[in-house]
């Protein structure tokens, strides 16, 4: 019997205790320091419990289990709902200094009926019989003006005829005016961004003319919730606005948003995607953002009423009492996610959509496919990325983001984008668990 390759042993932050997790056998335990130190030094007894829980394994048996879980992962993913992004324009009325799309060309014409019809013909054909929904994305998809309204109306109508739900990612400035129109469609979610309370948000997300946008976005969120439309509020964090997290949390609590079941939140890390950011040193790396959030939560626990950070699998484990299924691939691009834009191009996902050189084919004016490139994306998982194949956290990391990996490794899609799983667990398990013992 050997110590499993999928075991991860770490020390809980701000605690004397440790955790031991196995991502393949789906077990998690909190250990006292004596037990943990025994394991670290190799001085432990091969107890039945360690074997039963899959911490100690016969390597051949473990490999069989690994293969079986992989097949089941691939099979389940086939059945998963597809998220199809559609970009009607890359134009935007905001001037956010951190926008990664700011240099994308925009040649969108006013009416795109032909393109939108071609998009729906394409998805009818390519995703026939699959569960799916469409996310309208930009640029800013809800710009004022008749041309934009017409395009949104077409999208909502065509989707409704097919029973397909729509999500919208908007900066929120015109949301209030769009509520009656959106209410005509099957709206699944409206994602809006606030980067803090009024003063800080208005500096980070001003209109092109420099005017603030906070007040109108807040009215948009209120109007959406009143109209029973689900809102996903996103806050993009870097070192210059982290101090706004408790303030925005308090604002959302006072406004009654956090009590509304239609309201949820997400924290986004602002990072260099394709174009250099103006001030790269204000950005967090992945672990840095979570460290900062962890510190803020220690000081202001009410943040958890506003947002409960995932910290890898920590929140999931706490909420369900179970380990998640092993994650052989964390990048949905070309598998359960595709992106399309008004020019007729097809892309892997939101990270690549509109970026010159990233198109994987076209749906308009004719259907074309770059088969080799698509296959490369489709093949990407922790088995096909060499560095991942021996990594102990691979079934929690899943190889990370293909687009980030590609940018960092000379255009190689089959390369890793490492997630700091162990430090995230050290913080997250400490935050959500104290001295509990959990397991499947
Ligand atoms: S490439 Fe990155 S952004 Fe795109 S689907 Fe994969 S993980 Fe998401
Ligand atoms: S991307 Fe890095 S951390 Fe993630 S599984 Fe691969 S080697 Fe491990």
Describe this structure in words.
By secondary structure, this protein is of the alpha/beta class. The chain contains 16 helices and 15 strands. It has helices at 33-41, 48-52, 59-79, 113-126, 146-161, 175-182, 198-204, 214-226, 245-254, 286-299, 303-306, 314-320, 371-379, 394-397, 402-408, 421-432; strands at 2-3, 7-11, 18-22, 27-31, 56-57, 82-87, 132-136, 165-169, 187-193, 231-237, 263-269, 337-341, 345-347, 361-362, 368-369. Strands 11-10-9-8-7-6-12-13-14-15 form a 10-stranded mixed sheet, covered by helices on one side. The protein has a 3-stranded antiparallel sheet with strand order 2-3-4. Helix 4 packs parallel to helix 5, helix 6 (175-182) packs parallel to helix 8 (214-226) and helix 10 packs parallel to helix 16. The radius of gyration is 23 Å and the shape is globular. It starts with a strand and ends in an 8-residue tail after the last helix. Residues 272-277 and 435-440 have low confidence and may be disordered. It binds iron/sulfur cluster (2 copies). The site of one iron/sulfur cluster has 11 residues, from helix 15.
């Amino acid at each position: 019997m050997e110590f499993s390759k999928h075991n991860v042993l770490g020390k809980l932050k701000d605690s004397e205790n440790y955790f031991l997790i196995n991502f393949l056998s789906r077990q998690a335990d909190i250990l006292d320091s004596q037990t943990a130190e025994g394991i670290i030094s190799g001085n432990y007894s091969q107890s039945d419990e360690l074997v039963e829980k899959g911490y100690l394994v016969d390597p051949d048996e473990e490999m069989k289990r690994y293969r079986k879980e992989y097949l089941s992962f691939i099979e389940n993913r086939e059945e998963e709902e597809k998220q199809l992004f559609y970009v009607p324009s890359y134009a935007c009325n905001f001037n956010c200094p951190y926008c990664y799309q700011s240099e994308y060309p925009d040649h969108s014409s006013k009416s795109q009926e032909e393109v939108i019809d071609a998009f729906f013909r394409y998805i009818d054909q390519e995703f026939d019989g699959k569960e799916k929904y469409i996310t309208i994305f930009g640029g800013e998809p809800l710009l004022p003006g008749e041309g934009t309204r017409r395009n949104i109306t077409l999208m909502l109508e065509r989707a409704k005829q097919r029973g397909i739900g729509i999500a919208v990612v908007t900066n929120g400035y015109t949301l209030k005016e769009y509520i009656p129109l959106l209410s005509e469609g099957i709206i699944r979610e409206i994602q809006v961004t606030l980067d803090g309370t009024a003063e800080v948000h208005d500096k980070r997300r001003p209109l092109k003319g420099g005017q603030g946008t906070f007040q109108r976005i807040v009215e948009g969120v209120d109007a959406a919730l009143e109209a029973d439309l689900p809102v996903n509020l996103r806050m993009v964090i870097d070192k210059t606005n982290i101090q706004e997290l408790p303030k925005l949390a308090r604002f959302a609590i006072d406004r009654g948003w956090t009590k509304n079941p239609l309201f949820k939140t997400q924290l986004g890390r602002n990072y260099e995607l394709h174009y250099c950011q103006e001030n790269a040193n204000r950005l967090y790396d992945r672990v840095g953002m979570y460290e900062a959030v962890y510190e803020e939560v220690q000081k202001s626990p009410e943040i958890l009423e506003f947002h409960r950070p995932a910290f890898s699998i920590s929140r999931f484990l706490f909420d369900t009492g179970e380990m998640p299924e092993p994650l052989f691939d964390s990048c949905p691009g070309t598998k359960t996610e595709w992106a399309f834009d008004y020019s007729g191009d097809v892309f892997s996902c939101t990270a690549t959509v509109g970026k010159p050189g990233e198109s994987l084919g076209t749906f308009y004016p004719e259907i074309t496919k770059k088969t080799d490139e698509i296959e490369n994306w489709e093949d990407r998982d922790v088995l096909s990325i060499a560095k991942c194949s021996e990594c102990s956290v691979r079934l929690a990391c899943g190889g990370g983001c293909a687009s980030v990996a590609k940018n960092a490794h000379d255009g190689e899609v089959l390369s890793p984008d490492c997630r700091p799983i162990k430090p995230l667990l050290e913080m997250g398990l400490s935050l959500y668990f104290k001295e509990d013992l959990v397991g499947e």
